[in-house]
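Priority: low. Protein: phosphoglycolate phosphatase. Input follows.
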Amino acid sequence: MKTYRTYLFDFDYTLADSSKGIVMCYRNVLERHHHTGISDEAIKRTIGKTLVESFSLLSGITDADTLEAYRKEYVKEADKYMTANTRLFPETSHVLTTLKARGAKLGIISTKYRYRIMELLGHALPESTVDLIVGGEDVQTPKPSPEGVFIALEKLQTEKTDVLYVGDSTVDAETARAAGIDFAGVLHGTTTREELAAYPHTGILNDLSELL
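Result:
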């Protein structure tokens, strides 16, 4: 695979498996409001979308005030349970530190809140490994809007042709396409190789080590 000057990563199901914590937090909120019979797999399929979008898909609710209330409840649940139930994938630390040692700039673009990602990474990586995190609170329009990518390009002073965006979902693929940058899919999540391959891509990776 081509070597890039800058690598931008999604977080959930790309760098880390936080599905256990995510399912727990969604289920606590949903069942509190009598939304039952929703499978773990259905919840996992929403990873990468905003909390409001996910709650709407899972519950069928469209009322904005109700969805915002659910979002706030989820954040409180995540403050309790997310960090303890999230693990970086086995190769993540090695891949990121190796790319950094080679002189690459590294960024994360996620719908997850920046402070949460910083808390999670602080337990696993040297502080200077990741140059920039653009979280859900940093943008007006979430992925697949390219806004977060454009923020990263400006702050990292990087041209589009020098960037690879790595993600696990079709939302990530759509984000890269909208931003006009190269995309590589990784098969850590619930999205299939065929689903990712339907979008422009430079590769579909079994895991992140293939970046090296």
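The chain has a mean pLDDT of 95. The CA atoms of residues 28 and 77 lie 8 Å apart.
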